[in-house]
Amino acid sequence: MKTALSILIILVMAEFQTACNRQKPTTVLFENKGYHIPYQLQKPEKVIELPNELNEISGLDFYENNQLACIQDEKGMIYIVDIARQKVVRKIKFEKKGDYEGIEIVDHIAWVLKSNGNLFRIKDFDDTDNINVKIYKTSLSKRNNAEGIGYSRKNDRLLIACKGYPYINKKKGKHKKAVYGFDIHNKELREIPEFIINLDSIKKNINYSRMAQTSDELLSFFNPDEGDVSFQPSGIAVHPQNGNIYLIASVGKLLVVLNEKGAIQSIIRLDNSVFKQPEGICFDKKGNLFISNEGKTGKATIIKFSKI
Questions:
Q1: What are the distances in angstroms from CA 288 to CA 18, 26, 44, 291, 306?
Q2: Cys bridge to 92: 26, 78, 205, 213, which one at CB 3.0-4.6 A?
Q3: Neighbours of 130 (CB within 10 A)
Q4: Does residue 119 contact residue 111 with C-beta atoms inside 8 Å?
Q5: How far apart are CA 132 and CA 127, in angstroms?
Q6: Rg (Cα) of the chain, in Å, rounded?
């Protein structure tokens, strides 16, 4: 159990880490040769303010037309947000309270991710009277802290990004983060990660300061299960046109783009004034990008970026 002193130190260092990111504009820190991210992340096309009931929005996915399906921490509810009208137009209750972190819609079935790695398959969620919910328990645990869910149509797998410990077993992985695959056909988690992200390779390309490193090391010391906190994925999405994988992190304020094989294509530092607490990420069928921010100091938002 953490002592009061430990908690105080964690809070102070977290604020220090935020201060390190403050006033830094959105900047491309690294791009692989031949790749260029097709979004101007410093110029949102639209910023949608959300009602208080979505203040802790933790995940979103494209639903249909101008609508997004959203969830938030602690409530077993799917919220349908009309982005043209900028309002919640429907609510679908699927479970009691819990720590829900992501949502992905595949062939009219909603999959909701819980932080302990459990998946909720929600059939007929658009028909309140006939909603069908089934829970799939995976080998992941709270220690892995599953925070993001996406879908690879090419492999017919859900992709689960872990904010915390990267491995299911006791293997060391302090400076790594993992993305796991859940086979939709067999309804099983593949226990070997789809991708392992080496955080040292990220830090090498982002001009990682000694001051920031010291802050992260202290935070990691008091949160050993979290490992290296320089980049902690909070959302994941697969681009519908090229298969690239986008990982967003509120802790670290970074967007990392991988190709289908897991090689880093781009690293972008996110402007703290625009991306106050980015937790969710998704695309529509045209490749437009949506990023959600929890209402850290004001209204929660969904930000839209058109593909260049």
A1: 29, 18, 11, 10, 5
A2: 78
A3: 9
A4: yes
A5: 9
A6: 18
Instruction: Report the SS3 class of residue 283.
Output: strand
Cα separation, 116 vs 120, in Å, equals 12
Name which CATH class applies to 4-305.
mainly beta
Mean pLDDT over residues 179-194, rounded?
A: 96
3-class DSSP assignment, residue 47: strand
**Helix 210-222 with 4-21: angle, nearest 10 deg:** 150
How does 88-101 read in b/e, with b if 16+ C-beta sit within 10 Å?
eeeebebeeebbbb
Q: What are phi and psi of 98, to 5 degrees?
A: 180, 180
pLDDT tens sequence across 103-112? 999 999 999 9
Helix (H) or strand (E) holding 13: helix 4-21
pTM to 2 decimals?
0.88
Contacts of 248 (CB under 8 A, 6+ apart): 148, 233, 234, 235, 236, 254, 255, 256, 270, 278, 279, 280, 281, 291
Nearest 10 degrees: Cα torsion 26, 28, 29, 32: 160
- Give the pair of three-digit tokens for residue 143: 């220690």
DSSP secondary structure of 73-138:
TTEEEEEEEETTTTEEEEEEE-SSS--EEEEEEETTEEEEEETTS-EEEEETTT-GGG-EEEEE--
Examine the pLDDT at 220 and tell me if it is beyond 70.
no
